[in-house]
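EI: anyone free to look at a 430-residue chain?
SC: sure, send it
EI:
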Amino acid sequence: MRKLLHCFYIPLRRILVLSFALANMSHVVPLVHVRALVHHTATSPSRVRPLPASSSSSAYKYRPRLVTVNGLSTDRKMEAIDAAKLRSDFLKVLRSRRSAEVPLSMKPGKPVLDPLFQETPRPNFSEAMSSCPKADIPNLKDLLKEENFYLITESGEQGCLPVLILSMKSNCQRRPAVVFLHSTNKCKEWLRPLLEAYASRGYVAVAIDSRYHGERASTKTTYRDALVSAWKKGDTMPFLFDTVWDLIKLADYLSRREDIDPSRIGITGESLGGMHAWLAAAVETRYAVVAPIIGVQGFRWALDHDKWQARVDSIRAVFEEARIDLGKNAIDKEVVEKVWDRIAPGLASEFDSPYTIPIIAPRPLLILNGEEDPRCPIEGLEVPKSRATKAYEEAHCPDNFQLIAQPGIGHQMTSLMVKQASNWFDRFLK
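SC: here you go
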């Protein structure tokens, strides 16, 4: 009976969400106008407005079974309370280094003909992305609708979020959407093969430039310089957290589009983008299906087991600067811990994977890693996996969680991973 009920869970939830949405159409902001969009997590308490039907209160909310023993509830209820507190605490950290908050708005953009990559040599082809399942449609490119615009997520230069969306012109119905997030030093245009493949299969495919990347960068050292500046000044969080803020705002926008089913928004990304996807899904429950690729890791575990070197090497400049400032001859555990605490407070403690992965339950979560990945050591995911498995079991949907480590693969997104993520989204969003 439990399995039978689970089979009807997602379809029934979609019907309920759609019914509520139809009854509240006055809250949907038409896309033909540029209007201010205000999210419940991005305003002060005095400015909070009622949540629309697509909000986190209606999509995949974790409602664990409450068991009472001798008049006292078990820790299953506490898990739900802890999830709410963790999200609240995370939002407080995200808000702590914002420039002035402004109503979410948008302005038109143009296609980027010569995107900036902060790496040499410039990448030009991804076999993994090109292997993504794609509908066999003649003249597909002519049938695609491309949108380029900016969302204003906060004041200041980095508050201008570049967005690229591909979808099929002929489809006027509400569709599922998937947000794609690029890896370090790349940009949203790099993800076009994935966007085209998903759009051909009926998705609204969305990509953004993360902070200090793509259109938000001016030189090949913009991201590196931002990390060093964050260490020096402590006024921004360019490693992960600032982009997570943007992704909360992006969920505001996507949930109000007339061509997107707000209960069917997925999120995925590679490496840096995988970390963005994981943390955004933890704090923002409107991301209904999640598939981070080579991104999920245990930051505290790596510190405690002397496995932090590969992750540090990926953004080494900020750690070298910290080493000098701390009077050290070499980068060591103390340097690494101080950098994480400075540029991403809580990343190696309360917001690390053992705590933020389980609270994604019961939303479908597929973690794809390489078994030999030194940046995301698989041993460091034993506790997150165990806790997530328990959370999904208690939510009566154990099949909604998988962690797959591809044998013989290091820090690399493979064709197999791309196809597994694609199948995951088709399974839960269509």
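EI: Residues 1-81 have pLDDT under 50 and may be disordered.
SC: 👍
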